[in-house]
Amino acid sequence: MKLPGFPRIIVDSALCGGRPTIAGTRVRVTDVLEMLAGGAGTTEILEDFPYLVEADVRAALSYPANQP
What we know:
The chain contains three helices and three strands; from the N terminus they run E-E-E-H-H-H. It is α+β, with helices and mostly antiparallel strands. It has a single domain (about 1-65), classed as Winged helix-like DNA-binding domain superfamily/Winged helix DNA-binding domain (Arc Repressor Mutant, subunit A, Orthogonal Bundle). It has a three-stranded antiparallel beta sheet with strand order 1-2-3. A hairpin with a 2-residue loop joins strand 1 and strand 2 (about 5-10). The longest helix is centred in the middle third of the chain and has 9 residues, at about 30-35. The protein is globular.
């Protein structure tokens, strides 16, 4: 299921235990956030996950800030 306001983030109970992921991938939002918290920049994340785009990283970063 795509989340309202977050077309790049999905939640699917059959994928990654129902945790939010980047649409079309198995990359969890928390994977991206942990990399950012560890000091990785967007460029490094995109090199590690070449199937992501910058908008995916931005969506992962803004997603938790907009959750109740």
